[in-house]
Design brief:
Length: about 290
């Protein structure tokens, strides 16, 4: 009997101890929140979310920047959301399930629940497509380039593993960071410039190869917004590792074409929202690269 009482006492003391120290912990967490470095903040947020920022470009056009990217916060991935009368169009799905769920939560606040859903993927790279399951399972119609469809078919279910390996992650770490990734073939494929008419609103899908051959840029004339995917990088060099000088020449030609559009806001694939001026900086960088290979 005495033994029972003693163990009860020990258990009670232990429980109080846990409560005391965890409340101390919570307090300490609040106090240090403001003094965290970007790297520490990255660690403090849920794995695979990054440090997303929501930008309301107009009442119906949203851009999200700073979604998770393994190279760090300054390379944060962008995505977009266009609301029309009866539809919601997502542009890209981020690299992780956590990123896509964040995008969904942003959209959901403005939705009535009966909208037609679309997901346009700007290209096949993991940092723009791995979250697609979230939109697809809500019923989104997926639109992407023909090459993306072929790429998904070729890799089958191995794409996540390929990326995790590239990052040096084991299966567990890959699951923790990326989430339960599942890729679906597009419902509609595009291989030339296409105008979607959604609820009487034009969404221009422009085929803008260079970074990759399946690169699409999405232009919304009504708001003068260009969702450029990785055709445009803000504040950092455009990522040229996936092609050679011939691809970069094609890229420059596409950028020159995009420059002709009436654009107020550019949503780059990576970096901050910017203006058309950033297109010139990308062109200059690519031209420099081209001349270096001569
Ligand atoms: Zn990218």
């Amino acid at each position: 009997m005495q033994l029972k009482n003693q163990s009860l006492l020990v258990m009670l003391l232990f429980a109080f101890g846990v409560m005391f120290f965890s409340s101390l912990g919570a307090l300490a967490e609040e106090e240090v929140e403001d003094t965290l470095t970007p790297e520490e903040k990255e660690l403090a947020s849920p794995p695979g979310l990054g440090n997303p920022e929501v930008h309301k470009i107009t009442e119906d056009i949203y851009a999200i920047t700073g979604l998770y990217h393994p190279a760090g916060e300054e390379v944060g991935v962008s995505a977009g959301i266009i609301f029309t009368r009866n539809s919601v169009i997502f542009i890209d799905a981020g690299m992780t399930i956590a990123s896509a769920e964040f995008l969904w939560q942003v959209a959901e606040k403005k939705m009535k629940g009966k909208e037609h859903l679309y997901l346009i993927l700007t290209h096949r790279h993991s940092d723009h497509v791995f979250g697609m399951r979230v939109m697809k399972e809500k019923g989104a119609k997926v639109v992407a380039h023909t090459i993306l469809r072929d790429w998904f078919q070729l890799l089958g279910g191995r794409y996540k593993q390929v990326i995790a390996q590239k990052m040096g992650w084991d299966r567990e770490k890959g699951n923790e960071m990326l989430g339960d990734v599942l890729l679906f073939p597009p419902d509609q494929v595009i291989d030339r410039d296409t105008v979607l008419n959604i609820d009487g609103e034009e969404i221009h899908i422009l085929v803008t190869p260079g970074h990759l051959w399946d690169e699409l840029s999405i232009y919304h004339p009504k708001s003068r917004t260009l969702f450029a995917g990785d055709a445009i990088y803000e504040g950092m060099p455009p990522h040229t590792a996936f092609g050679g000088p011939d691809d970069w020449k094609l890229w420059v030609a596409q950028l020159q074409r995009l420059k002709e559009l009436d654009i107020e806001t550019v949503v780059p694939g990576h970096g901050k929202l910017c203006s058309k001026k950033e297109i010139d900086r990308n062109i200059a960088y690519l031209q420099e690269e081209i001349s270096r290979t001569k």
